Fold:
Amino acid sequence: MALGRYDGPLDERLTESRDFWRGVVDGDGSIGQYRRPNPSQSTFSQFRLVGSKRLLDSFAAFLKSNDINGLSVRPRKTIYTIGTTCAPAEKIVAMLYAEATVALARKAEIAEKMLGSR
Structure:
């Protein structure tokens, strides 16, 4: 709480931590591989995170500091979202979940499948 997770500025010990962001994604994000509409085409990866503008702006800065550029925080009803598909989604998932010792089990399983299919 003192690091600003819910109020005030986020401490850089949080904003620079992949473990912190993986926890945020475990709670308020979605990752997955989905079939394309045409059955003859392969699947595609997707990453989405919802939250407050303050939180997602910090996540976008974290991504940028890790060479993942071009994502923007967008309003969606009363909340905000950031997301992407294909190679950028896989890069985010790899950065957050590869060799992680702690993660939500079902998301870790999805990440493993997603990254194993690259």
Summary: The chain has one domain: 12-116.
